[in-house]
From TrEMBL:
Coiled coil: none annotated. Residues 1-22 form the signal peptide. Transmembrane segments: none annotated. This is TraB/GumN family protein. The keyword Signal applies. Keywords: Signal. It comes from the Bacteria. The lineage of its organism: Bacteria, Pseudomonadati, Bacteroidota, Flavobacteriia, Flavobacteriales. It holds the Pfam family TraB_PrgY_gumN.
Amino acid sequence: MKNLVKLGFAALMTIASINVTAQNKNEDRENSILWEVTGNGLSKPSYITGTCHIMCSKDFEIKPKVFKALEKSESFVMEINYMDPTEMTALQKMFQTNKKISDQLTPQEAKELDQILTEYGTNLKNMDTSSSQALYALISMKAVPCPQTEIKSYEIELMQAALKQKKNINGLEKVEDQLISINKAYDLKEVIKQLKMGKEYESLLQRMVNAFKKEDVESVYNLFKNDKFMNDKQEKAMLTDRNKNWAEKMPEMMKKESSLFAVGGAHLMGENGIIKLLRSKGYTVKPISSL
């Protein structure tokens, strides 16, 4: 299990780096990190919790109401099922490549990337056989303002609690699905572009964490959408398409058993967010202040 948790944590590092962007809005908001889903033929309520994939231990907290929602649920559902050995094998391959990074770049581009990577404590020689997703994971490692030993994963902590309670563990998508989404959004050149902005990610991640701690998921969503870090094509691949796929799968899962879904906070809000998508299907989805 320890190896599965490590692989899952590595995936969350990649996902977290892709999910950090910036902007804010002042408007009337319907905010909570925990939402209850009822109606439309469900015999029991299910719950959705927004997550901040990785945080420093000093900032880390899972609200008591989220643990209570887990207790009330029969299954715990993450974006990916980190307890599935097949998925973890696929995840390990996600960070590997058969084609060297340097072979995909001109000599000048390779030299520039090598210089960029020194700011991340490594070099192109060490990373040359890694995938672009592994390169992207470096962003979150640099952005999180604490040693790796002090980094906590929201999903992994909840998963471990779910296992102690003998809950069923499931996933909304496969590693292959996620890899397709990432590749649609970020090719190697785009990854290098993002690596150049590494220092900016540090302050952006802290803003995201601050919003999350206040349960301001509307700001988390808006932080995601700054066009400096994410264009329309990337938003469609990383948010809209995945949200729609998940919203198609969730009804059957909720009908089968009461579930707590844990997904990145940016997936909740917006016109194509999970909350509006489920409401459009006839479900009552309401923010929960306490349980």
